[in-house]
Design goal:
zinc ion binding, single chain, Znf_C2H2_sf, flat, mainly alpha
């Protein structure tokens, strides 16, 4: 646990107000929690089902990054989100502000 202000040891400085954590104690708590979870899974007869994901596929469309380059648009309060500044993702209905983040987003690096 964290050492309080009342405890003192040889290595502590009087001006050191940072909390000291007992790493061994927290490691043992983590191990106990993992063992309890495994025991509960064995008892219930449930094993975590692996996530089945599709294989990677090539995009069947061209990503248009140049159409808005150098254009100026007026954005008002009533402008739809798809027409606001940036790149619009129609799958998750969000706008990404630059092309690099947009490519990362559609390639799955960011949500």
């Amino acid at each position: 646990m964290a050492s309080g202000s009342g405890s003192s040891s040889k290595n502590e400085n009087k001006n050191d107000f940072r909390r000291k954590w007992d790493k061994d104690e927290y490691e043992s708590l983590a191990q106990q929690r993992l063992e309890e979870e495994r025991d509960r899974e064995r008892r219930d007869g449930k094993l975590p089902t692996p996530v089945k994901r599709d294989m990677l596929r090539h995009r069947d469309y061209k990503v248009d990054l140049e159409s808005k380059l150098g254009k100026t648009i007026v954005i008002t309060k009533t402008t739809p989100q798809a027409e606001m500044g940036g790149y619009y993702c129609n799958v998750c209905d969000c706008v990404v502000k630059d092309s690099i983040n947009f490519l990362d987003h559609i390639n799955g690096k960011k949500t």
